[in-house]
Amino acid sequence: MISSTVSETVNEHSRLLSRPFYNADGLPLYEDSRKWVRWPSETAHIIYKVLASNYVNVLLIFVPLGIIAGAVGWSPTAIFILNFLAIIPLAALLSFATEELSVNIGQTLGGLLNATFGNAVELIVSIVALKNGEIRIVQSSMLGSILSNILLVLGCCFLAGGTRYPEQSFNETVASTMSSLMAVSSASLIIPATLYAAMRGSRADDEKEDNVLILSHGTAIILLIIYVLYLFFQLRTHSHLFDEKPDEEGDATQKEPNILHPWPAAVVLVAITVCVAVCAEYLVDSIDSIVQTAHISKTFIGLILLPIVGNAAEHVTAVVVSLKNKMDLAIGVAIGSSMQIALLVTPFLVILGWIMGQPMTLHFETFETVVFFLSVLITNYLIQDGKSNYLEGAMLIGLYAVIALAFFVYPDNASIV
């Protein structure tokens, strides 16, 4: 009898302890009728759901550590590593908040918002580097983001999806349009490099820097106009080409309820952007010391390491949707993001450098320009048939590994031809 009473008491306490966030009516505290109970509980509940949205958010512990390291003045290696790791979860949260906000404001504004914040990490890091006169970091970061998306991200999508499906298909019209725009952007890098090489050794040799700068400013304006026309093409006049096709089963995709409403999503977006800016400031300031102590070139840091941080969230998103056989979305994430960097972010930085008095141009080094052109060419060949498999993914990843190795041994003081 005593043991039975003790057992009932223990069970009662267990039930109470297993429901610590419920009120007397059995409702969650964030649904309580009392405002003074509901508001803080709802805030805590939303914070928990946001943090639980991605496993990479466990790295958020490095955000305060990175800021403290930069403010106190720890060793440059510690500052670089801590802020490098801090930007990874911030990029994931930035992508999450953007998606939450885009759903609530419609397709047109949502597309513009994704175009603006989709590559916000790369943009913030590049603006900080541009302010500090680190032109090589800016150029290599932009080129690295493009190569990371069209080779590494797209390759991982093809490889991951190909392990589950023998062959996957996607909208070849959309892919062709995006790849054509990428070809235009590669031409915008080849022409300044060709002009620089043609003027070298001629009587106009002293004026080549100024002429390339003028060409870059004009080309940047033209690329921005082309990107605006592409947005109008995508969102208004030819939006039917970009509409997502229904699943083969025929049932509509059930959307999960939003975690964040528009205003909280906007607040989170602003707060994360500020944190990224602070971490990026300390990260860029520590690069010179890292180059000297670790014997790693600035080109390798900007072209390989920084894009991995900025594109971490896009990598995961693209691979997950490819495993679900949603290749149109995967292509949009991979190639669409590259196109935004090439036609929007890079020209914007050239114009911003013009305003700030920094000689930011579209004249990349010859080796970088050739690598970019070949990467775009090979990617266009692989996606022109509208089908993919794991072998194509392995080829793209292999090419990216070769390029990463090449830039690891490529010195910063290589002559510009």
Helix content: over 70%
Q: Strand share of the residues?
A: under 5%
List SSEs in N-to-C order: HHHHHHHEHHHHHHHHEH
Number of strands: 2
The Rg value, from CA coordinates, equals 25 Å
Structural class, please?
A: mainly alpha
Question: Globular, elongated, flat, extended or rod-shaped: what is the shape?
Answer: globular
Topology of this structure?
Layout: H1 2-18, H2 35-51, H3 62-72, H4 76-104, H5 107-117, H6 120-131, H7 135-164, E1 168-169, H8 172-199, H9 208-237, H10 262-285, H11 287-294, H12 298-310, H13 312-323, H14 327-356, H15 366-383, E2 387-388, H16 390-408
Antiparallel strand pairs: 1-2
Helix pairs in contact: 3-4, 3-10, 4-5, 4-10, 4-12, 6-7, 6-10, 6-14, 7-12, 7-13, 7-14, 7-15, 7-16, 8-9, 8-14, 8-15, 9-14, 13-14, 15-16
Observed structural traits:
1% strand, 417 residues, mainly alpha, two-stranded antiparallel sheet
Describe this structure in words.
Helix content is 74%, strand content 1%. It is built from 16 helices and 2 strands. A two-stranded antiparallel sheet has the order 1-2. Helix 6 (120-131) runs parallel beside helix 14, helix 7 (135-164) runs antiparallel to helix 14 and helix 8 packs parallel to helix 14 (327-356). The longest helix is centred in the middle third of the chain and has 30 residues, at 135-164.
